[in-house]
UniProtKB/TrEMBL annotation:
Residues 399-426, 493-520 have a biased composition (Low complexity). Residues 521-532 have a biased composition (Basic and acidic residues). Residues 433-442 have a biased composition (Gly residues). Residues 12-50 form the Rad50/SbcC-type AAA domain. Pfam families: AAA_23 (PF13476). This is Rad50/SbcC-type AAA domain-containing protein. It comes from Actinacidiphila guanduensis. Residues 399-454, 493-539 are annotated as: Disordered. The lineage of its organism: Bacteria, Bacillati, Actinomycetota, Actinomycetes, Kitasatosporales. InterPro entries: P-loop_NTPase, Rad50/SbcC_AAA.
């Protein structure tokens, strides 16, 4: 990826069925602020992006949601991601669906993901689309196995390649380990996977916790963590290695914080535990040099001052001093850091909040940092150029009042889902059989039968083959109806699995099939508010 090409960035986030959101799309600009009443789901938007970022970095699904002592990126864990009011299908399955668009050298690429939470946590469907092609699809074929069947575009002698992949990892991030890159189609898939993964791996959630930032730390712990508990060690590093940016940080603190500020430095402190449980070492703590007033260690600063200091440090320094898993295959100049800050103006005054936005604008103008944050007081962005403000909850509330809107469909009962599941199962058998416990060989046979019947791409076969399908596992009435439309469209004409004619856009759902109007190289966007009407018409 040449440095002259556009850097991969996340430009849209889709919450098809996630916590309190249904069919919600959020455009992400260089500086995007989310505001709205409490409880409208502002923090949920940030959490969804953090989930995708961790999965793109190679983390397993249980690790993302706090298994094995790890900290969950979502408050309440995976169970909290299930849409509110979602009812389980006949097999007791519930889950969520999220997705994003990453723009880069290949243009916009869409990634959609369906995750089953109950009865077991697993990825049940994934789709990567762009450049007029369906580049990757995965689908759960055999619930007894911890794998999904993946199919990716090759455009060689065989149009697609199929193989099982683990159901606990993002398949897009695994493609570089499985695709050789011999054909033009394989190289396209690899380039698309790289663009998506690079864009998502640059996501850095920051949540400064002043109560942990006041403690001494060991010198050398110089990569800032999300909680900013090692702020003192990072400031020691920037003072010695990043003189210009450290000077800009000092100026920012001097401009908006109380008292004189000559410099930011570190002073010796109590001994602290060494790395990895080793012997104790000399500790350090950051301090503000107030000139004639002497040194003031940061453990004496207020919570707001500490939060401002940590956020300003992140916006001025970038990934070089942050504990973020960016791509090691690309130079830093080819990557963009997306800072995700929940409560940017929490504990800081209006002047400090505006200074943070000014610093974000300065970093964004250079193309290396983007900001997605929530704020309580949107007036902090008044008259600031380049800041996009989104009121969360306003559009969803309006859609819920419309006839057939996502709000009415979201709380569908199990009785409403049952007919869709039955229809999907019956049509699946007519269109090429059901993929069951026969394993990979049986799954391939089912795929071949479906291809001969001319009806389904691999991800769509799985929807029919598992009853209500992966979208029903995602826990909403809308999802259950996906299986019905997938089966209803099976006779609409040949669709090559993951080939040129399968270039459909799943819209606000993670795993629906292309509609009758989706032709070669055409992407079809399905609005969640119109989904119920379309299903009725297709039936």
């Amino acid at each position: 990826m040449s440095s002259s090409q556009p850097r991969p960035i996340v430009t849209e986030l889709r919450l098809s069925a996630f916590k309190s959101h249904r069919g919600a799309n959020f455009a992400l600009d260089p500086i995007t602020l989310l505001t709205g009443a409490s409880g409208t789901g502002k923090s949920s938007v940030l959490e969804a992006l953090a989930v995708l970022g961790r999965l793109a970095a190679g983390a397993e699904l249980p690790e993302v949601f706090g298994a094995g002592g790890a900290k969950s990126v979502v408050r309440g864990g995976a169970a909290a991601c299930i849409p509110q009011g979602a009812q389980p299908d006949g097999e007791g399955r519930r889950g969520f669906r999220i997705g994003c668009t990453a723009t880069g050298p290949l243009g916009p690429l869409r990634l959609d993901l369906a995750v089953q939470v109950e009865p077991s946590l697993r990825i049940v469907g994934e789709r990567l689309t762009g450049v007029g092609e369906t580049l990757l699809t995965t689908a759960l074929r055999d619930p007894t196995r911890r794998t999904v069947q993946a199919a990716w575009h090759t455009a060689g002698v065989v149009a697609v390649t199929r193989a099982p992949l683990p159901d606990s990892r993002l398949a897009t991030s695994l493609l570089p380990l499985r695709v050789a890159g011999r054909t033009e189609g394989q190289r396209l898939v690899l380039a698309a996977a790289e663009q998506m993964v690079v864009a998502l791996r640059g996501v850095f959630p920051i949540a400064p916790r002043p109560e942990t930032m006041r403690a001494p730390v060991r010198l050398g712990d110089g990569r800032l963590r999300s909680a900013c508990d090692n702020l003192s060690a990072v400031l020691a590093r920037t003072e010695g290695e990043c003189g210009i940016r450290h000077g800009m940080l000092v100026k920012a603190v001097r401009d908006v914080c109380s008292g004189p500020v000559e410099r930011l430095t570190t002073v010796p402190a109590a001994r602290v535990a060494g790395s990895r449980g080793g012997p104790t070492v000399d500790g350090v703590i950051a301090a503000v040099d107030r000139g004639d007033l002497g040194m003031v260690p940061i453990d004496r600063l207020g919570d707001g001052e500490l939060r401002f200091l940590a956020l300003a440090l992140v916006l001025l320094t970038g990934p070089g001093v942050l504990d973020v898993d960016t791509s090691t295959e690309l130079l830093p100049a080819g990557q963009v850091l997306t800072v995700v800050a929940d409560g940017l103006d929490l504990g800081v005054d209006r002047r400090q909040a505006r200074e943070l936005l000014r610093l974000a604008g300065l970093a964004a103008s250079r193309g290396h940092i983007r900001l997605l944050a929530t704020v309580q007081d949107p007036s902090c962005a008044d008259d600031l150029e380049g800041v996009s403000l989104t009121v969360v909850g306003a559009e969803e509330a309006a859609a819920a009042k419309e006839p057939g809107g996502a709000g009415e469909d979201g709380a569908a009962s199990e009785a409403a889902m049952a007919p869709a599941g039955e229809t999907a199962s019956a049509d699946a058998e007519e269109s090429g059989g059901r993929a069951g416990a026969g394993g990979s060989a049986g799954a391939e046979g089912t795929a071949a039968g479906a291809d001969r019947a001319g009806g389904k791409a691999p991800i769509d076969e799985a929807v029919a083959a598992t009853g209500a399908g992966a979208d029903a596992a995602a826990g909403s009435g809308v999802g259950a109806k996906v299986g019905a439309e997938v089966s209803a469209e099976a006779g609409a004409g040949p669709v090559a699995a993951a080939g040129p004619n399968a270039g459909s856009d799943p819209g606000s759902s993670a795993v629906p099939a292309a509609g009758p109007s989706a032709g070669p190289g055409e992407e079809r966007r399905i609005d969640a508010a119109r989904w119920e009407d379309e299903v009725d018409q297709s039936g």
